[in-house]
Amino acid sequence: xxxTESIAYDVVVLGAGPVGENVxxxxxxxxxxxxxxxxxxxxxxxxxWACIPSKALLRPxxxxxxxxxxxxxxxxxxxLDAPAVLAHRDHxxxxxxxxxxxxxxxxxxxDLYRGHARLAGPRTVTVTGPDGExxxxxxxxxxxxxxxxxxxxxxxxxxxxxxxxxSREATGAKSVPGRLIIVGGGVVASEMATAWHALGxxxxxxxxxxxxxxxxxxFAGELVAEALAEAGVDLRTGTSVESVRREGDxxxxxxxxxxxxxxxxxxxxxxxxxHTDDIGLETVGLEPGSWLEVDDTLRVxxxxxxxxxxxxxxxxxxxxxxxxQARIAGAVIAARAAGVPLLETDxxxxxxxxxxxxxxxxxxxxxxxxxxxxxxxxxAEQAGRRVRAVxxxxxxxxxxxxxxxxxxxxxxxxxxxxxxxxxxxxxVGPGVGELIHSASVAVAxxxxxxxxxxxxxxxxxxxxxxxxxxxxxxx
Length: 475
What we know:
Layout: E1 6-14, H1 18-29, E2 34-38, H2 44-49, H3 51-68, H4 82-92, H5 99-108, E3 111-114, E4 116-119, E5 124-128, E6 134-145, E7 149-151, H6 159-162, H7 167-172, E8 179-183, H8 187-198, E9 202-206, H9 218-231, E10 234-236, E11 241-247, E12 250-255, E13 260-263, E14 265-268, E15 272-274, E16 306-308, H10 319-337, H11 355-358, E17 361-364, E18 369-374, H12 377-382, E19 387-393, H13 398-403, E20 410-416, E21 421-429, H14 436-444, H15 449-452, H16 465-474
Parallel strand pairs: 1-2, 1-6, 2-3, 6-16, 8-9, 8-14, 9-10
Antiparallel strand pairs: 4-5, 5-6, 7-15, 11-12, 12-13, 17-18, 18-21, 19-20, 20-21
Helix pairs in contact: 1-10, 3-4, 3-8, 8-9
């Protein structure tokens, strides 16, 4: 085989993160010959620089916080052993080795190519390997772009010289910085403020907007901000960074109000950009660096062979939602390859990613946790739905009272008054992350309120909040 020999597959997948792995798994299960290309580690951002390491850092933080709220064990919950936490994080990410993930790909029969993949016209992908070797892969049925996203940095003079943290450095740091400035108010900013403050950093959070977690119900960000402030985090809203520079080992930040702040490290958690800038989009008439617009079968608009899954299509920048899209797209690609004349693309059909619009769940692993699925009240009203929001204080739930002394939390369900089904649910409080799947089932299943009344929550658990919500709705 020469370096430029063309190798034909049914499906070629760009990116071997969780999304790419799942679409490869589904197409291989359908008997389609599949190649997958990865330029970094098999397992992708989630496995090594996002979901897994961040939760490994946060789990000890939350466990200690829970223990401190329980009489009888509160006195033994002392300072965290930061080196032990970081070592456990390293273990959970396999010390940034991907042998296990590669073995899994081998097990499903997908061919792995290491290197940088670029489209080279319709159904054609060139791969430049780490030693400069070249491969040309062609796809009989589909090319799936699963290249994910990266951190977006602001256009500030001298920022490169500061060597700022992004989410990668924040989850992979080898030691605890004495002082850490975090710029941003979303999920990454909130979780990393929670983790690094508990591990010993003096943390300052600068939020340009009015508060934290702006895409959730307002009370979610309010309760998380209140807890961070009580813990000792310096949280400043309505604040922008005007300039940043490094003086020796010190990062110096000047805000729009003229305040001068100093830290050892600075983390910018200010959004994401798609990894589509150097994958050859221009060779198929698309704009390099753009988010890729897709239909509900995850196929790129005006294409009959190109699919975009996960972060790159900008529908829901969440690992679990990307994996869901991969399962849908895998079924779609297999059906089209088999010549199925009519796909099930009606809402909630086997070949439609309907949940992207109606039932996207998310958990923010702060203390307290924030979890939501579906539409917020504001989103539902903006969509023109006739709705009613029902709120419950979690201190009315015996399971929450038993879970922790001084438990604070809140729940909301947004009810469509025409169908009497749920459009969205939000929980905030310790331990509520495990409640969100029940809400996802209710929203995705469009379960009528009258039927939910017969789904009896166990006493005494926090899930009894469902009974309180339904009682409040019924009056």
